[in-house]
Write a structure and sequence with these properties.
The chain has 428 residues and is α/β, with parallel strands linked by helices. It has 17 helices and 14 strands.
């Protein structure tokens, strides 16, 4: 059963505690990475047999398999995928950054080029559920950024096939290649390349502890988006909210993972008790009730505050992945929110809207990293190069200053490179 705390009456360590058992997979993941580096495709196929129970002849999904999957998926769902993709494109197109040039009167030209990452690798989880939403959310920003090749890795089923909805979403999003491999071995393949899987420049996407650890270990060989932890939701609600709606929203994240965190912060003890009772009613009705109940029991909590501004302060301390401002006047509080991955405004904006359809990205910082990290965006798939041009006259004007600065750092060769071009001019 979810616990109810009155803020100020218990120690803050209880309020902000998160029960996430440490999972040490570092050595196992390191061994998998080394195996893939050494044995490439053969290692990937062996891990498919070991972990997925699948015998794979060809690691890459063929065009025929994609077309067959497209025919297998219901036309109604294909239409929903297309509409969701349009919404995601519309939102992310606003994130595109432009190059710029600064020209000065003395002939100096400086600027910045915004360039796409050439190859992007997207990890799409499999296992207990299929996530076509992750395909759309991760690949569409990469496409808008202009990546020349976008590839997906995702674990196959025991039949050696990829879930048709994953393949349909990939086609709608414009993914170039798809590979039947998951886990740490998929991350290793993207980072180092194999005979079949191309080496990429950036790896994005959520996964289990093995995937997260693999991303951590290959960072530096490639770029990564973030190290994602268990999913989180924090709801700030006033006394006018529906207990059944709030319970459903909390459970929308609790059903993800036994370690997921679902937190309600409210200024109404009456509402808190009603939501607790509603959770007890709704959990047994869920197909994933075992997971949801474990999450609520381990990390679910309701915090009762004196007012909503105090609730905002608690949210800023937690820095949740998903934040719902469930009230009639959410914009009155928006400027006070300092740390949150994605903010859902009002009583008719459940977090699930962002997971699937609205258009804002659902790949978000977790575990308090919203204090310094951002949602996945077009920015994750671009890099910047600077350029500088000085004329002879422009350099002559500042060469002495550059040399003086360099000498302060004890770097005389730096100083020499600035002034050598003009040595002897006074004697000429």
């Amino acid at each position: 059963m979810i616990r109810i705390y009155k803020y100020g009456e218990v120690d803050n360590s209880e309020i902000f505690a998160r029960n996430v058992p440490a999972v040490n997979v570092e050595n196992t993941v390191a061994a998998i990475i080394e195996d893939v580096k050494a044995n490439k495709d053969a290692a990937l196929k062996a891990y498919c047999r070991k972990f997925d129970g699948a015998e794979i002849d060809s690691l890459e999904v063929s065009g025929g398999e994609i077309e067959a999957a497209f025919q297998e998926v219901e036309p109604e769902f294909l239409d929903i995928l297309r509409e969701a993709a349009d919404n995601i494109r519309e939102f992310h197109k606003r994130q595109v950054r432009n190059s710029f040039v600064i020209t000065k009167d003395n002939g100096i030209v400086m600027g910045q080029k915004v360039l796409p990452v050439e190859k992007a690798g997207l990890y799409v989880p499999g296992g207990t559920a299929a996530y076509p939403s992750t395909v759309l959310m991760d690949s569409i920003p990469a496409k808008i950024a202009g990546c020349s090749e976008i590839v997906i890795v995702t674990p196959p089923g025991k039949d050696g096939k990829i879930n048709p909805v994953i393949l349909a979403a990939a086609k709608i999003a414009g993914v170039d290649r798809i590979f039947k491999v998951g886990g740490a071995q998929a991350i290793a393949a993207l980072a180092y390349g194999t005979e079949t899987v191309p080496k990429v420049d950036k790896i994005v996407g959520p996964g289990n502890a093995f995937v997260a650890e693999a991303k951590k270990q290959v960072f530096g060989e490639v770029s990564i988006d973030m190290i994602a932890g268990p999913s989180e939701i924090l709801i700030i609600a006033d006394s006018t909210c529906s207990p059944s709606h709030l319970a459903a929203d909390l459970l929308s994240q609790a059903e993800h993972d036994k370690m997921a965190s679902a937190v309600l912060v409210t200024d109404s003890l009456v509402l808190a008790e009603k939501v607790r009772d509603e959770l007890e009613r709704q959990i047994p009705l869920l197909p994933r009730q075992e997971i949801a109940k474990a999450s609520i029991d381990s990390n679910g909590k309701i915090i009762v505050t004196e007012n909503l501004m105090q609730a905002i302060d608690i949210s800023n301390e937690i820095a949740p992945e998903h934040l719902e401002l469930c009230m009639d006047n959410p914009f009155d509080y928006l400027d006070s929110v300092k740390h949150a991955g994605s903010i859902f405004m009002g009583k008719y904006c459940p977090e699930a809207l962002g997971d699937y359809f609205a258009g804002a990205n659902h790949t978000l910082p977790t575990s308090g990293t919203a204090r310094f990290s951002s949602p996945l965006s077009v920015d994750d798939f671009v890099k910047k190069s600077q350029f500088t041009y000085y004329t002879e006259t422009a350099l002559r004007d500042v060469a002495g200053k550059i040399a003086y600065f360099a000498e302060k750092e004890g770097l005389s060769a730096h100083a020499k490179s600035a002034v050598i071009r003009f040595e002897g001019e006074k004697n000429e």
